[in-house]
């Protein structure tokens, strides 16, 4: 089997890449370890930056997103029960975010790829990425009990944090950076209308809470919990009680409803400072993880893909490797920015230090400053909606 770009992983990065390359007249094949059902049902975050929505729209892949996603023009920040709103429009020249589940994005991209005759092998396990230091790399994989080989010009490893891509990069070709936070998130989906039109991020002495949504009828909420916590420790009643306390502000009430999904997510910052080696390129979670507090994960993956498509297009149309050669350098500028912002939001809203301690006072001082300073609020708004690509040129 032969193609121009061999893609490992059918998450948002791999699927966006395949659909986008097709538009540029470049062929690709995707190899995905999981089943289609698993890939499309895994509950993940759901915050799309303006850049991401624009890209999907320009690719003609945003029909359902436009109908079912919800555009937000601001975000609520709450500290010890006091709630303020950071408006996006006036602070970011009209840029916004859209709430639309990541698995919905994955469904739309998979449907579009397959409808256009794209090749995607589900339940196919990549076992080796070979010869990436030559101009004829290949992906070895197992499919339906048989060994197979995909020959290609380039390999894009969009295969997540535990994938083969990063493991294939020679030791010594990158440095890695890891921070593990001393808390996790318990996330729920519930059949109840959202209690707020826009997201609410809250610091409370009992811990962080976040109110988000998936539709007019489905709420998505999170509470800070212990790293060794289990879902079994959290009855529905305990979850709603904690959310009510942590998100409380005068004159506002949290709507409760039947919970149909509960899961715990660890909080981690991770990245490597080189995302390419020869003709192997990493994109998305394969190269970086951010804590979900800034809502940046999927957006960073799509931004990586943009740079990779730019590089591959320049190669196939003009024969130049200049943009491919600087892929890591280009992508990392945004990744560093997102790492900083995600760490900032995480530190600002989680209970990490004793309530009332020096660390707490710094958190409170930051919150007070957002209230008083348009410049500080602008910094938060422009990072939250995502900086335009031109900002990094
Ligand atoms: C979500 O809706 O799942 C969500 C929103 C914002 C975040 C994280 C998760 O920062």
From TrEMBL:
Signal peptide: none annotated. SUPFAM superfamilies: FAD-linked reductases, C-terminal domain, FAD/NAD(P)-binding domain. NCBIfam families: PRK08243.1. It comes from Flavobacterium franklandianum. Keywords: Monooxygenase, Oxidoreductase. PANTHER family: 3-(3-HYDROXY-PHENYL)PROPIONATE/3-HYDROXYCINNAMIC ACID HYDROXYLASE, FAD-DEPENDENT MONOOXYGENASE. Residues 2-342 form the FAD-binding domain. This is 4-hydroxybenzoate 3-monooxygenase. InterPro entries: FAD-bd (IPR002938), FAD/NAD-bd_sf (IPR036188), PheA/TfdB_FAD_monoxygenase (IPR050631). The keyword RNA-binding does not apply. Pfam families: FAD_binding_3. The keyword Ion transport does not apply. One of its GO terms (molecular function) is monooxygenase activity.
